[in-house]
Write a structure and sequence with these properties.
The complex is a heterotrimer of chains A (123), B (976) and C (172). Chain A is an alpha+beta fold and 123 residues long. Chain A contains two helices and six strands. In chain A, a hairpin with a 5-residue loop joins β5 and β6. With 976 residues, chain B is an alpha+beta fold. Chain B has 27 helices and 47 strands. Classes of the chains: A alpha+beta (123), B alpha+beta (976), C alpha+beta (172). Chain B: This is Sarcosine oxidase subunit alpha.
Chain lengths: 123, 976, 172
């Protein structure tokens, strides 16, 4: 049973105090997106043996969603960080590479944030 | 000392107190033991060597061990609700008045009919069940399965509820040392000296492990360590506390016995500790292995260390004439212990060609026969050892000598107890020199930080002698002996037990290998080796050594099976702890719950809430009560406790924009003072919740959710706010329980509320779909003019602490109006009469609002909302989707819930095609006829068509497709 | 038989106000209106019969005498009128218990996975008690525990069960 430290309240919470939320850093596709984009957004999930970024909510606690970088095989936790973080932070990347020197991020942290706000909402 | 049994020695017994005699019963016989006995030592002292029968062949069995690894001596303990099967006599402390019984024997332990299997052993080889019961196929269900079911399972399951209490507790500890032997005590002392918080847990009621028994000054070494540990404030010692499993991130489960088998103690029987350990030291010692010789399961054959324990710890001699058989020096300790206790040691049979270590020398010096290069060819005796046949180990079993004996102490070497180490991924190395798997410190189980979360110490680490701690002298090397004698015949191998409980023999494992079972995991399941309640603690290494030999490969190539928790069985009571009876679940109660109870309400679960389903009066049936409640509401006025409805405040400059994303409809345009019904979908487009939103102020909305949806929808809102649109300025708060809410419903609802006074609730002041704030009966209130019944309806929300007061005042003031409390079922029927959907009835996670004819609740103006893109997918816009209609039973019978409407033709599987299903179905008291709703392909275009609904067997229903609004189609009643 | 490990009593005279705001921006205004210092992360500040607890990075809970709630609510709403903030009376939706006695920690250790022994004196920990959400802080002589009102019976029962006489957690 995992323990993860909530980056909002600093509590090392155990799994029973947390709610899992699946893969982190998904980009939302809404109206106007292609079928392929939307399908990937809804259903395509990585299932790596090794480094994985995932969402957790400190449900029996401060109620905040956060991200965890975790190894799905060894259960090593490389770090947790706030949900309002477009990409894993340089500290997280460094912690991963400390354990797996060959590991390279498959995201471009210099690109615009992966989140999208809907446009043209009628108020 | 006959009072405590004829086999009690006149002296000795480190753990017992002869002054306190304890009576107990075994299979109806009255016996006596003494304080400090285990059940096994007390039975042995009474001469009861045979304690049970094996699972498959019903062979007579006595204990072979003195601890947790025992496979044979399993008893049924206790009576009634406290009865427990499969309890190890070797680890059960004797308690005065205990009632115990042997298992797997009928009519009695001595004359067991099932033992016929024993004569038929040639016909019950490995894989017998797989091979035998295959054909003819119909026999499986009617003949084989019932027979197997009757004979399956060891011990009887108790039939009554367990009356004992259990509890759990959490602990956070720097270092937990598992095992209170000398290595564990030393590790705890070292960690304690470092200033860490330390727990030491020991499975038995005593510290010290084997050291006091096996080493001359062992007790004083242990006592010195204990004295230092007891002086350390940061160290906690717990006895009778079993570590059962090590899990992710240092999560260690530990069961502490508080009042096991002592129902009068008045405290919980066991406590399950859920420990977060910074580091776990596995100091769990080692287990001795049996030797595989013919007849090694006859009662009286036991592990050499067990015999030593019974003599030294309990002052019990399981036999008077002892043969020791070994492949190592350690077993010679047993010969010396037996001699010291005044017992006759007939011979030490050593498979090694020489035995010249210090221990064999000491044995020889006492004048004992030591037969090197020798082996046991067989045991004479069935229910007990009568004689031992001796042969050369190098041969095939030619008997050279037969000696009279009643007890055989065997030792095949020792295996470190690596279970905890392995539970969470620690790896093992094979040691040829010591013929054992031992922890590989370079491949430990790792924790959250990626570093080792456990280490091993002492024998568990592979340092079997722990000479540095015990002061033991070096011993000469053992010789691997997996089958005795080395070239035993096939016939002998049929009598060489590997797994004693499940009756798996050398011959079975060899047969499995021969039949192609090369993986140890497959062999385990094919032969059932190691699958009994002892999980193969004494059998696994012997079994995989035999398998390796049969496969002609080294033992590490075969590997071990997976070690899984728990180390010893855990009671379900300890796992459940407080979660039983009244506290099984946190039942949620509204402020008016007590009133409902007092009125005899019949409750139904809605999530964790308990809501009144109806309020039966006198001998009224539930159906009659529901009908009465509905008629009263439609005729006059009724009250529904709607406090459970979810209430979420959404506030901020971006609240409107946010709600427009959450709901399919437009919430931002809702005027202050008004209410609007809305639908919430998930990103997959499916409808997940509905409810009425009220705009409280320029930047504040209060949205209602379904009863079951409050926490889920609040979480849904927060998820999008925190993870997607975190720059939007919106606060949410789930205030469901701040308010008690009463729906006052019916043509006389306004009249009733006006009697309570405080607010203008006229149609002008508070029109339909409006809300107002004020006072009702002197209580601050918000009143929502919304209706789920089709009647004139006011939902009155007051602070929860005043909910009961409002409810009682309504009932007091409306007595002459026949004001009637109504439950959820009346609410359901009334909403169905009006054709209103219910989340969970009309929706099932695959239904979109468009299926329900609710396109009116979907804004066409919005460029986006959660679910919009999904609803544009081709399958969602398919005109052939099943859509909501009303269904009118043709013959006046109520349609069964969930039945399917059949279509012409059959599908690829030969099943009738279907074209719709019933989602809600009731007898309408208002209309005095059945009503139903359903989802039907092209439904709304097929008004008047008749569908057929087969309902199992010959039964079939017919219904006409009609408008789903059955009552008050114009909606005039709600507008009153 | 020994005494219960702790005395469990339900508290009925406390009011509670939930405050959601950007604490960095509105913290001073809240502190002034509440009459208490702003608590640090995971802490609760107390002065007299009022406490202000840190519930999350953007949420505080003011615990005060029930009779003072309405006025405090108005003062806070006033103070935060120009902020993006939410101030709500949540007195009725909570159940509050006192766990008093030398062994109060044993009672909570049976129900909560949180390491309450390590909680600072002025700490506030949100966690669960068996299956129900709760918040816990220290009070003189023991602990205060708040949960939802709908599960008050459940909380009372599990607290009383955990406090049963003779069930202290010391080694036997």
């Amino acid at each position: 049973m995992l323990t993860l430290t909530c980056p909002y309240c600093g509590i090392a919470a155990e799994e029973t105090e947390l709610q899992p939320g699946g893969e982190a850093h998904l980009k939302r596709f809404g109206p106007g997106s292609s079928d392929a984009e939307f399908e990937a957004y809804l259903f395509a999930r990585r299932n790596p043996k090794g480094v994985h970024f995932e969402r957790w909510r400190h449900a029996y606690g401060c109620g905040k969603w956060f991200m965890a970088a975790r190894d799905t095989a060894t259960l090593q936790v490389y770090g947790t960080y706030k949900a309002q973080t477009p990409f894993p932070t340089p500290e997280i990347v460094a912690a991963i590479q400390h354990r797996h020197p060959q590991w390279r991020p498959d995201f471009d942290a210099t690109s615009p944030t992966p989140t999208s706000a809907p446009e043209g909402l009628t108020q | 000392m006959t009072q405590t049994g004829p086999f009690r020695l006149p002296r000795g017994g480190r753990l017992i107190d002869r002054a306190y005699q304890l009576p107990f019963r075994f299979d109806g016989r009255q016996m006596r033991g003494v304080a400090g006995d285990t059940l096994a030592s007390a039975l042995l002292a009474n001469g009861q060597l045979m304690m049970g029968r094996s699972f498959k062949y019903h062979r007579p069995r006595g204990p072979i061990a003195s601890g947790a690894e025992e496979p044979n001596a399993l008893l049924g303990l206790g009576q009634g609700g406290r009865f427990e099967p499969n309890q190890r006599a070797t680890t059960t402390p004797l308690v005065g008045g205990m009632v115990t019984a042997s298992q797997n024997a009928w009519p009695s332990l001595n004359a067991d009919i099932g033992a016929v299997n024993n004569w038929l052993y040639r016909f019950f080889p490995a894989g017998f069940y797989y091979k035998t019961f295959m054909h003819p196929r119909p026999f499986w269900k009617h003949v084989f399965e019932p027979i197997i079911r009757r004979s399956a399972g060891l011990g009887k399951a108790p039939t009554e509820a367990d009356p004992d209490k259990y509890e759990q507790a959490y602990a956070h500890v720097d270092v937990v040392v598992v095992g209170g032997g000398i290595a564990g005590l030393t590790a705890a002392r070292d960690a304690g000296r470092d200033g860490k918080s330390v727990w030491l847990v020991e499975q038995t009621p005593h510290f010290g492990g084997r050291t006091p028994t096996d080493h001359a000054d062992g007790q004083s070494r242990v006592d010195a360590l204990l004295a230092e540990l007891r002086g350390m404030e940061n160290v906690t010692l717990r006895r009778a506390t079993q570590a059962t499993g090590l899990y992710d991130h240092g999560y260690l489960l530990v069961r502490e016995s508080l009042a096991d088998h002592d129902p009068n103690a008045g405290i919980p029987r066991q406590r399950l500790w859920r420990i977060r350990a910074g580091h776990v030291v596995v100091a769990t010692g080692a287990l001795e292995r049996p030797l595989s010789f013919a007849g090694n399961d006859v009662p009286g054959v036991m592990l050499a260390s067990a015999l030593r324990d019974y003599i030294d710890l309990y002052g019990v001699a399981p036999g008077r004439r002892i043969v020791v058989v070994t492949n190592n020096d350690d077993a010679y300790r047993t010969a010396l212990a037996a001699l010291d206790a005044g017992l006759k040691v007939v011979a030490v049979i050593d498979a090694r060609s020489t035995a010249d270590g210090a221990l064999p020398a000491a044995v020889r010096a006492r004048g004992l026969r030591v037969l090197t290069g020798s082996a046991i060819a067989g045991i004479k005796g069935g229910h007990a050892v009568e004689a031992v046949k001796i042969c050369a180990h190098s041969g095939s079993g030619q008997v050279t000598e037969t000696v009279d004996a009643d007890c055989v102490a065997m030792s095949g070497g020792w295996s470190p107890v690596v279970h905890l180490w392995s539970h969470c991924g620690g790896k093992l190395n094979w040691s040829d020199a010591q013929t054992m798997f031992a922890p590989d410190p370079s491949r430990p189980p790792t924790g959250a930080d990626g570093n080792a979360m456990a280490s091993c110490a002492g024998a568990a680490a592979g340092d079997l002698l722990a000479a540095e701690l015990t002061g033991a002298q070096a011993e000469s090397a053992l010789m691997p002996v997996w089958v005795m004698p080395a070239h035993a015949t096939r016939k002998m191998k049929f009598k060489m037990w590997l797994d004693f409980q499940n009756d798996v023999k050398v011959s079975d494992v060899e047969l499995a290998a021969q039949e192609g079972y090369h993986s140890v995991e497959h062999t385990k399941r094919y032969t059932t080796l190691g699958m009994a309640t002892d999980q193969g603690k004494v059998s696994n290494i012997n079994g995989l050594a035999v398998l390796s030999k049969a496969l002609n490969q080294p033992i590490p190539a075969t590997g071990t099976t997976t070690f899984r928790p728990p180390y010893t069985p855990l009671t379900l009571g300890a796992i459940a702890a407080e979660a039983r009876g009244e506290t099984f679940l946190p039942l949620r109660k509204t402020p008016m719950h007590g009133w409902h109870e007092a009125q005899g309400a019949f409750f139904e679960p809605v999530g964790h809430w308990r809501r009144p389903y109806c309020y039966p009066k006198g001998g009224e049936s539930h159906g009659d009560a529901v009908a009465r409640e509905i008629r009263a509401v439609r005729a006059s006025v009724g009250t529904l406790d709607a406090s459970t409805l979810g209430k979420i405040i959404v506030k901020g400059p971006d609240a409107g924009k946010f709600l427009d994303m959450m709901y399919t409809g437009m919430m931002s345009s809702l005027p202050i003072g008004k209410c609007r019904y809305g639908l919430i979908c998930n990103e997959n487009g499916f409808l997940i919740d509905d409810g009425v939103a009220a705009r409280l102020s320029d930047d504040t909305w209060l949205v209602h959710t379904t009863t079951g949806g409050a926490e889920r929808m609040h979480g849904h809102f927060e998820d999008w706010l925190q993870c997607e649109w975190w720059d939007w300025k919106v606060w949410t708060a789930n205030v469901t329980e701040q308010w008690a809410q009463v729906a006052v419903v019916g043509p006389k609802a306004r009249m009733l509320l006006e009697r309570l006074g405080g607010m203008d609730l006229s149609a002008e002041a508070l029109p339909f779909m409006g809300w107002a704030e004020g006072q009702v009966a002197g209580i601050p209130a918000r009143v929502y003019r919304i209706s789920f019944s089709g009647e004139l309806s006011f939902e009155v929300a007051v602070p929860a602490n005043r909910g009961l007061e409002l409810w009682e005042k309504l009932h007091e003031a409306g007595r002459d109006l026949d004001v009637t409390p109504y439950g959820t079922e009346a609410m359901h029927v009334m909403r169905a009469e009006k054709g209103f959907i219910m989340i969970g009835d009309e929706t099932d996670g695959t239904v979109i609002p468009q299926d329900l004819g609710m396109s009116w609740a979907i804004s066409k103006k919005k460029s986006d909302y959660i679910g919009k893109r999904a609803q544009e997918r081709s399958h969602m816009t398919d005109p052939g989707r099943w859509k909501l209609v009303g269904l009118e039973s043709l013959d006046g019978r109520v349609l069964p819930d969930g039945v399917y409407a059949v279509d012409e033709g059959v599908n690829a599987n030969g099943q009738r095609k279907v074209q719709g299903r019933v989602t809600s179905t009731y007898l309408s008291p208002t209309l005095d006829r059945p009503i139903a709703m359903g989802l039907v392909r092209h439904g709304p275009q097929r008004m008047g068509e008749v569908l057929e609904f087969p309902a199992g067997g010959q039964d079939s229903y017919k219904a006409r497709i009609v408008d789903p609004v059955f009552y008050d189609k114009e909606g005039s009643r709600a507008n009153g | 038989m020994a005494e219960a490990l702790a005395t469990i009593s339900q508290v009925q005279d406390r009011g509670m106000i939930q405050i959601r705001a950007d604490l960095a921006q509105a913290g001073d205004a809240i502190a002034e209106a509440a009459g208490l210092a702003l608590p640090e992360q995971g802490r609760i500040t107390t002065d007299g019969n009022r406490s202000l607890g840190w519930m999350s990075p953007d949420e505080l809970l003011l615990v005060l005498p029930l009779a003072e709630t309405a006025e405090a609510l108005a003062v806070l709403q006033d103070a935060l009128a120009t902020e993006h903030a939410l101030v709500l009376d949540v007195s009725d939706m909570r159940a509050m218990f006192r766990i008093q006695g030398a062994r109060a920690l044993d009672v909570l250790a049976k129900l909560c996975p949180a390491d309450l022994a390590a909680m600072p004196d002025d700490g506030l920990r949100r966690t669960r008690a068996a299956q129900a959400a709760c918040g816990i802080w220290r009070e003189p002589g023991g602990y205060a525990l708040i949960g939802f009102r709908s599960v008050a019976d459940y909380l009372r029962a599990i607290l009383a069960g955990a406090a049963a006489p003779g069930t202290g957690l010391d080694p036997r």
